[in-house]
Amino acid sequence: MSNPIIRKATKEEISLLADIIRNSFHDVAVRFALTKENAPRHASNCEPDWIKKDMDRGVTYFLIEEGGKAWGCAALEKVENKLVYLERIAVLPQKRKQGVGRLLVDYILAQAKKAGARNVSIGIIAAQTELKRWYQKIGFIETHTKKFDHLPFLVAFMDYDLSKNHANQKGG
């Protein structure tokens, strides 16, 4: 991307956010055989009301766009005084491997630090090893896995310590 901008999404863009998330996670759903029946809350099934409920409880969504076209999004949820969640990070398939995801993650990390957070946490499908490695290159560390009754996969939780210097980290 030559001149992307990242900005806070508005409530008027809830449907756009849901579309980006749903379309970005479609290939993940196919790969792991996730359906509305076996994983109704997976991002590949994202509905506008999910985003609205998130925003109503204080989750902030951001869009990354270029030339007025949105290519991805991410959300930041303050959980505790020093902990935030990076959620719903999504990049449309045609913009992957171009640094869009990394721009979003770096932006969220900067926003979290500015808000006074010390740790940023994310949950991913534990079996999605290439995504896990990508986050590790950025500086996230896997802390634990958990099985949820409503999901047909194991979730790996990863944390990023904002107090550490991660300047040496590289990743796409």
Describe the protein's architecture and organization.
This protein is α+β, with helices and mostly antiparallel strands. 30% of the residues lie in helices and 31% in strands. Helix 1 packs across helix 3.
Features:
disordered C terminus, 172 residues, alpha+beta
Number of helices: 5
Largest sheet: 7 strands, mixed
Assembly level: single chain
Provide the residue-averaged pLDDT: 92
**Number of DSSP E strands:** 7
Cα distance spanning the termini: 13 Å
Bin the strand percentage.
Answer: 25-35%
Q: Which structural category do the helix and sheet elements fall into?
A: alpha+beta
Instruction: Give the helix level as a range of percent.
Output: 25-40%
What string gives the helices and strands in order?
EHHHEEEHEHEE
How would you write the strand order of the largest sheet?
1-2-3-4-5-7-6
Q: Radius of gyration, Cα only, in angstroms?
A: 15 Å
Uncertain stretches: 168-172
Overall outline:
globular
